[in-house]
UniProtKB/TrEMBL annotation:
Ranges where the W2 domain occurs: 254-411
Matching InterPro entries: ARM-type_fold, IF2/IF5, Transl_init_fac_IF2/IF5_dom, Transl_init_fac_IF2/IF5_N, Transl_init_fac_IF2/IF5_Zn-bd, W2_domain
Name of the molecule in the record: W2 domain-containing protein
SMART domains membership: eIF2B_5, eIF5C
Source taxon at top rank: Eukaryota
Database matches in CDD domains: W2_eIF5 (cd11561)
Function of the molecule: Catalyzes the hydrolysis of GTP bound to the 40S ribosomal initiation complex (40S.mRNA.Met-tRNA[F].eIF-2.GTP) with the subsequent joining of a 60S ribosomal subunit resulting in the release of eIF-2 and the guanine nucleotide. The subsequent joining of a 60S ribosomal subunit results in the formation of a functional 80S initiation complex (80S.mRNA.Met-tRNA[F]).
Length: 414
């Protein structure tokens, strides 16, 4: 079974211990009855410690298609023909929203439903409580179909056993490689010991000579005993070779991701150049098959392509596009994430300071609202990228929003 790391942000970590099976899909039926079967959805859901009905329902919600999970047969079906890559990208979005801890990014979380009917994720690694977006359609489904209640120590033991199984699967490839390396050494030693034993016997050794000869004929190594050089120099050389191969793979994956991102940016820029009505722009954005966050990132990069200063003036000038792209629930948070990513990658201190002006400009034209900005800012301060300089530059605007809110409350009291 092919395995991969859980979470897109960990895909290049060769030592990451949380694994899940790679998705396998199959298109069934034809015409109006065509469906996509996620063949190993049960195994994937088990690795994520989530009911398979959750992932199936999520695919249906995001694709706007009917979906069904059969508890008896373990079959997961989504209406329509959908590529494996498209469903895999949606699965990554599901993992980010409903599996990984919002604080440390660890996938070892448990779904909790509060008394006030909120869906939270409790992290077993850092203890952080993540609040899921209650506007998502899947959260409503989770409230109606809550995960099975835990049964104390027995369930914890089961989780530990499942974790050990995942680790064993991840280490299976390494063990197989070690056995292959040892095979050459053991074959050489075995042939040598047989020869010594045959010559030391007082009986007729001619048959045994034939046996040794047969062994020599079968031995492709021509009697050579393969051994692993365990010297420090050899070990360092092997380590450098392994690191070089891993580094090359990381570089290739990084280049591939950058190319895909640039391709989406170019596609959006090409459409913008046509100067079509904003209604057609909405249709175009909705038709893109990439995950919503990737689309928003590409849109922001396309609209600000080539800009080196006065970013706030540019976003104000192009506000109609931002308004059109933030009509759906959760889209404001996507835009804020794109802004953080855009200015975080710039690496220029002066440019980085403009993030607060951009937020203020979008706030003034009613593209983003105060509550989402403050929520995004607080998550950033406690999130995985909390050391990013973006949050230092956003702080003045966040403080201004909070103080303005306090003044408004004071005036109302008077």
């Amino acid at each position: 079974m092919a395995l991969q790391n859980i979470g897109a942000s960990n895909r290049n970590d060769a030592f990451y211990r949380y694994k899940m099976p790679k998705m396998v899909t199959k298109t069934e039926g034809k015409g109006n009855g065509i469906k996509t079967n996620i063949v190993n959805n049960v195994e994937i859901a088990k690795a994520l410690a989530r009911p398979p009905s959750y992932t199936t329902k999520y695919f249906g919600c995001e694709l706007g298609a009917q979906s069904k999970f059969d508890e008896k047969t373990g079959t997961s079906l989504v209406n329509g023909a959908h590529s494996t890559s498209k469903l895999a990208s949606l699965l990554e979005a599901f993992i980010k929203r409903y599996v990984q801890c919002y604080g440390c990014g660890n996938p070892e979380t448990e779904i909790l439903i509060t008394k006030s009917q909120m869906v939270n994720l409790k992290c077993a690694a850092c203890g952080f409580i993540s609040e899921c977006d209650m506007r998502d359609k899947l959260t409503t489904f989770i409230l109606k179909n809550p995960p099975e209640a835990k049964k104390g120590g027995k369930d914890k033991k089961a989780m530990r056993r499942a974790e050990k199984e995942r680790l064993k699967e991840g280490e299976a490839a390494d063990e197989a490689m070690k056995k292959l390396k040892k095979k050459g050494t053991s074959n050489g030693k075995e042939a040598s010991s047989k020869a010594v034993k045959n010559h030391s016997s007082d009986e007729d050794i001619s048959p045994k000579h034939d046996e040794v000869a047969d062994d020599d004929e079968d031995d492709d190594d021509d009697g050579i005993q393969w051994q692993t050089d365990t010297s420090r120099e050899a070990a360092e050389k092997r380590m450098k070779e392994q690191l070089s191969a891993a580094t090359a793979e990381l570089v290739m994956l990084s280049v591939k991701e950058e190319e895909e991102e640039k391709s989406l940016v170019q596609e959006i820029k090409k459409f913008l150049k046509k100067g079509l009505p904003i209604s057609e722009f909405k249709t175009f954005i909705s038709s893109l098959s990439e995950p919503p966050q990737d689309v928003m990132d590409a849109l922001f990069n396309a609209l600000l392509d080539g800009v080196v200063k006065d970013f706030a003036d540019v976003v104000t000038e192009k506000k109609r596009y931002f308004v059109a792209a933030t009509q759906e629930e959760g889209s404001q948070m996507l835009l804020l994430n794109s802004i953080g990513s855009f200015f975080g990658k710039k690496g220029n201190e002066e440019v980085g300071k403009e993030v607060a002006h951009v937020l203020k400009a979008l706030y003034d034209v009613d593209v983003i609202e105060e509550e989402f900005v403050l929520e995004w800012y607080q998550k950033g301060l406690t999130g995985v990228d909390k050391s990013s300089p973006v949050w230092k530059n956003v702080k003045p605007f966040a403080v201004w929003l909070q103080s303005a809110d306090s003044e408004t409350e004071g005036e109302e009291e008077d």
